[in-house]
Design brief:
Blueprint (H helix, E strand, L loop, with lengths): L3 E3 L4 E3 L2 E2 L2 H4 L3 E4 L20 E4 L4 E4 L19 E9 L5 E4 L8 E7 L2 E4 L5 E5 L8 E8 L25 E5 L4 E4 L4 E2 L3 E4 L3 E9 L3 H4 L1 E5 L3 E5 L1 H7 L3
Parallel strand pairs: 1-18, 2-19, 3-13
Antiparallel strand pairs: 4-14, 5-6, 7-17, 8-9, 9-19, 10-18, 11-14, 11-17, 12-13, 12-15, 12-16
Amino acid sequence: MAPLILSCPSIEINPLPLTQSTFAPFGTAVSSPLPSSMNTFPTHPSKTPNIIPANQNTALKCLDVSPVVNKYASAPSKVKEEAVMNMFCCFPRSLRRQKNIRTPGREERGRLFDVRILERHPYTTQTFIPLGIPPEKKAKYLVIVAPTLPPHSNPPSKLFKEVGLPNLRNLKAFWAHGGQAVTYGAGTWHAPMVVIGDARIDFLAVQWANGVQEEDCQEVELEEGVSVVVDEGYVGEKAKL
């Protein structure tokens, strides 16, 4: 089924750092709760209930770091689902130059990533786990999400009869690095992975699927207008992971 094409307001989004609190309305941001300097098993392990000793006191096990949700029982087709793990090898995206019309003498004020497609997985969470970025490379990735509008009485497609289209005016973007994974909540509108910098990032993607296209993944295409502002200095100096 061809994606629905949506007209867009003219919006520029400034991304925020990805944290558990900022991303909570859309899913789960996952990163190690331990300081990077901790490289030996602690003499006095944490009393936190969700961090427990494991593997003969050679590891700390962090419990339930992200939900794994399966709602396929409510899918119309009733086709049986299964857990799947795929790999997405994501290459750096092209950016559009933006002229600085506000500051005389400064020709550019960053670049733009144009958001042209959003998708959602209505019956499953989807977790992306980066497999690391070489220290000499400069790369991060953008997580782009949008809330869902209320259902429309006369939707443009039967796919959106019970759940609404993306709320583009409240679209959000977040900077993530190679030490962070992200779980999109079931039904959360999001852009495909957007790698920024000079290196490919490989992600493991974990979700449920039943092979019915319109139940596994629903997409909308966006006309020109929605962009994310990319500060290339942020990507360069701060992306040394």
